Amino acid sequence: MSHLERIVDAVAGRIRGKAQVIELSVLTMIAGGHLLIEDIPGVGKSTLARSLAQVIGGSFARVQFTSDLLPGDLVGVNVWRAKQERFEFRRGPLFANVVLADEVNRAPPRTQSALLEAMAEQTVSLDGETHPLPSPFIVLATQNPEEHHGTYPLPESQRDRFMLRVSMGYADAEIETALLQDPKTRDDAPLPAVLPSVEALADMQRAAEAVFVHLDLARYAQAVVQATREAPSIRLGVSTRGALAWIAAARARAFMRGREAILPEDLQELAVSALAHRILPSQSSAGDHGRVADELVRDILARVPLPT
Q: How buried is 179 (Cβ within 10 angstroms: 0-12 exposed, 13-18 middle, 19+ buried)?
């Protein structure tokens, strides 16, 4: 059994009935991206993030985003050491391999901008100094798509930094029934690492980057992206960064399946997760933005012909 299979199996043993979400989460890590989880509270988002950090042998930090969270609460602070007559940098929770930004849209814009720098540059800045973050560095951010009171909607530049957007959904009836009958079925013990070191994840990321993309599939991806920019039902289409993220995710999916080149199905299966959160529908209310965007991407996929 490969390291990838061990990662997926270990997390699936902790979060049952969510095979697709687990695969997309692992895929995002392999592609070197960040994951946005839009769902209601209490469906296992924190457990997923913690489990991923444990199985890769990486460090984990969870930050509950609130309206009074300051950039320093994420980045860290400089503390004056009188005896040494110098400032000492105390690292914040962003200095972890896997960071769970819980209810990310509850933090004010200044704090979100600090997170954006970390996601985009893998560095943080404080008092004119730049500090590198650990590698690998993965942000899993959550937000409730139904609750908008007291929130600050993520700017498009920040949504564009998330490689994929997923939704966990409720547990299957059989799994939930077993948990209700016997709470001991929920195991909170730390999962053992399945990688020899966290650096092994970087090796897999480099291997995924080498997966071949045929010119015809690159043209197909560009046609889909271009269609999002020209559709009258879409006010803001997918950026070039979004297109690159879609291709990177497709490479990671092919790598996870043991292939050296991507197939059309890799792009099609990931299109909604990779593209929908990057577009702005011309008409939609706050509550159904995600659903409308998903349908618009599916419509475009149905119209753009696959390469033959």
A: middle
